[in-house]
Amino acid sequence: MRRTTKYPVSGANSLWQIYKTVSFWKVLKNVIVIQIGRYTPFLAVKNWLYRTFLRMKIGEKTALAFMVMPDIMFPEKIQIGRNCIIGYNTTILAHEYLIDEYRLGDVIIGDEVMIGANSTVLPGVVIGDRAVVAAGTVVHKDVPAGAFVAGNPMRIIYTKEEMERRKGHSNE
């Protein structure tokens, strides 16, 4: 189960009421910073931009590839560990706006995690250390440390123990 906090709304759908939940100026600043970051080819500069202006927690030597899309409204709810790779055009969401409510949830990505291109990480999930997320995966629940996951809906392909056994056999 994802860890999100629900906020009910009445009347128009929650997205129609967006600026009651987050400041227009914050969103505008975040859009500008994220768009610069998405196209910046220098990883250290991108990480500095996101840490400084979006208050994202990004570990040392983590690489957010070209066109990675962090949450525009609540990027400060995203934490990415050290030495990770977040693949091309991946989206990391910390919010979801629904008809009768909106939800917010922290996204915690551990150390040495690899997330393949065009994946989507939904709010309120934890991806454990050294996990591998295949390209195109929708991460809708927690990923155990060391696991290899794929698909939509996401499923565990190999557990940490199975991955270690496979690596051990490839060295023989």
Automatic annotation (TrEMBL):
UniProt keyword Transferase, yes or no: yes
Ribosomal protein is among the record's keywords: no
Alphabetically ordered keywords of this record: Repeat, Transferase
InterPro entries linked to this entry: Hexapep, Hexapep_transf_CS, Trans_hexapeptide_repeat, Trimer_LpxA-like_sf
GO MF assignments: transferase activity
Domain of life: Bacteria
Name of this protein: Acetyltransferase
Organism: Parageobacillus caldoxylosilyticus NBRC 107762
